[in-house]
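Supplementary material to the annual report.
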Amino acid sequence: MALAETQTDVKTFTAAELYQRIVADTPTFIVDVRNEEDFGRWGVEGRNSLEVINVPYFDFIEDEDGSVAKVPADRNEVLVVCAKEGSSQFVAEILQSHGITARFLEGGINTWGNLYDVRPVESNAYGQIIQVARPARGDLSFVVVSQGQAAVIDPLRHIDHYLNVLNTHQAQLTHIFDTHAHADHISGGPALARKTGGRYFMHAYDAIHPLDMLPARIDYNHIVDGQKFQVGHYTIEVIWFPGHTLGQVNYLFTDPDGKSCLFTGDGIFLKSFGRPDLGGRGEAWAPIVYDSIYNRLPPRINKDTLILPAHFSVMNEDNGQGVFAETYEWVLAHNDALKYAQKQDFLDFVLSHLPKFPPEYVEIKRANAGLLIPDEEKASELELGKNICALSD
Amino acid sequence: MTVAFDQTLDVKGAKCPMPLVKTRKAINGLPVGAVLQVVATDRGSIADFKGWVKAAKNVELLQQETVENNGTALYLHYVKRTA
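Predicted assembly:
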């Protein structure tokens, strides 16, 4: 048995390549060799043609033949994943020695967790909309560029990715919009404002930590319902959409031809919507979500408005090409949460479909309010795994 | 509480999978009933040793502890050969 310390000719793959395979739905077989506990917490998720099995690397130490036999014989290639790289290389070498083609993930699973994917949503004479996704977490954010100006919506923690997009488009960042105080990830908004001089906007209600009842210690500009901005050719209107948080807003971008797109944050998602209980008051806030979905929002947009949410739950919510955006008409037809005729039915549905409350979400809200300054290790621990901002099935 | 042990295996600085590869080798060289103390610096070894003994033959994990040594955390695992 070859040990990982020796030189090897086993090849690697990168997180970016893995994501390309998932987007294209290329048949892919992954053996995750982390221990059961870590594997249970989070891992690689994809769509139909992705298969993932968990066989801890120490099983290969104990029972090499039995562990190798868990890989079906007809798979062309096995991609091995572990925490830091060493064990996946070790297992890939064992598989190769049994005649199975195997590669291992360069840098370990955190490179998958920290992968950002940048792709255009739309481009026309007025400007470009660019999606910046962190696929492992199901987090989505956006850059809108027009006439050398740019706005960023819901920027994530690793701000270099936005600086790169701005640089590529030779655009000056003027507006940094958070739709709400996020609970599942640390916002890149304040850091991006300090770095670029762009102004950071959020609603004042979300500058109060809902459980601590303490005011935020970050620099932000307060926005109100109906407030308007201009970025290049786009007119931007703030639409207050409380419920997931009390200060959540949507940003409606309209071009000179009247074509519009709506950045919904954790308002409506393509297949669900933002849960009302992360502020600790699910029963009180669920009716507020109802009013936002059914009464506040509809008069302000039209059926062709493009909906761009801050999260997806499963990869298949995309358009088949890694972009998570659909028209309001499409969302009305495909999102079951938007189909309740009776308010009480909606409330019953919501309150019976609340997923577990991740305890770290309280801390993340503290970080986003500036009440807690996490170091890199702490931040990355808080952001482990996929967001749980939507209702469960 | 400190566990009595018969032999020490120093895997400080070793990264996954080496702590367990070396532990398995060392255990195989011990008589039945003997206890091995493994000294590791890899934090992941805590969960990995727990997972390993579930599937592993002839071993029992008696205890795990974390101690500070000149600012570095050391993870101690006490493994007994049972058969």
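Confidence is low (pLDDT under 50) at residues 1-5 of chain A.
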